[in-house]
Amino acid sequence: MLLSFTGRKTGKAYTVPVSYCREGEAIICFTDSGWWKNLRGGAPVTVTVAGRRLHGVGEFVEQSHPAAVASLRDFLLKTPRDAKYHGVTLGPDGTPDAEDLERAARTGRMIRINPRPLPG
Length: 120
Fold this sequence. Notes:
By secondary structure, this protein is of the alpha+beta class.
């Protein structure tokens, strides 16, 4: 998925590639890069998913550490190829290593995007 947003301080347009999963209608992604700060409090975004452009609101999801661990675990169970980007080892059955999850959840940030199709 490509995620596009405007920098809060610079006003510059940014587009970043991110892995994602669906949670109902919402799109969930994680990052340990600083761009998430532009989405605090909710911000307009455009996403390109499977060739389809959608606009909506992207927001950083504030979570307690235990909730962040659980969210990242759920995300990696749905997108196991991303475990390496978060420094999380997967067991033979695909289960994320608990210690790796604890560490990764300290720097990873969850983003929720509530999209709507672009008109036309």
